[in-house]
Amino acid sequence: MREELQRLQSEVLAALGHPNRVRIVEFLRSGERCVCEIQPALGLEQSNLSRHLKGLRDAGILESRKEGVSVYYKVSDARIFKLLDLSTGIIKREIKSRSKILTIV
Questions:
Q1: The whole model's pTM is what?
Q2: Contact status, residue 48 vs residue 67, Cβ threshold 8 Å
Q3: Domain ranges, ordered by start, for the chain
Q4: Tens of pLDDT, residues 31-84
Q5: What gap in Å lies between CA 102 and CA 100, rounded to an integer?
Q6: What count of other Cβ atoms lies within 10 Å of the Cβ of residue 78?
Q7: Does domain 2-77 fall into CATH 3.40.50.2300?
């Protein structure tokens, strides 16, 4: 059971393992958006955006709904933002630690 949980955790983390996927999730921090808004805001090719959206949806990070010809996406669980915020904190701590080392050298 523990191994299955770890496998699922790795799938979620892997889905966030591309800068464009993080950009998409951050863009959706303000709420549900149409693909027609996401694509120009992030400047991604339509096929590239579709591939990233599918990966995020398959990992359970995003949900989609269709309205007419438009497809809307939203983050399925707001705790994903906490995960991103925590990773930012880790990065800031590491940068601070490295800058201290550089001032010593």
A1: 0.88
A2: no
A3: 2-77
A4: 999 999 999 999 999 999 999 999 999 999 999 999 999 999 999 999 999 999
A5: 5
A6: 9
A7: no
